[in-house]
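input
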Amino acid sequence: MLTAFPHWKGSKYEKFTVSKIIQWSHSENLEAIVQVEHQSGCGVSFFATDYVFNKVKYQKEKNLQINIVGLVYKLEEFDAQEANKSVQEISFSEDFCGYVPTEFPDEVNFIGKIRTVHEHFLGTIPGFILTISFTPDFTIDVFIAKTNCEIDIKAENHVAGWAWLIGTLE
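output
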């Protein structure tokens, strides 16, 4: 059985420490979600697109240089002042950024600032590669298709979104 999924690879490889591997038994353990900790201390999980080729490396080596990127399903403007009016228990600062996993470990909900914007085609799909700060010390490059853009995309916009994280060693 072969799995098909959208794929792209960013330009930066960063140091991560592998903490857990969740192999997919329905694919004969040839696919996996890998949980890692970034050198900044942030932990994320991602679908390892190269797991079938690098299974032993993921399992044996704890510290790896990994390229993790995201495919954004949804992106909207985030207004800290408006959020503070509707959520009484929490107060968001104007530069708040953060992320939380969803029910699927390789997906995250995030609030962050767009640091850079580049138009890009993923195959034939036009869109943007955005560098988004998930925390002050941890950024992720993400792709969003133009058909999924409901907001004006520009650097320094404060946004909230939902993304699938994928990664590779190669």
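quick obs: The chain has a mean pLDDT of 92.
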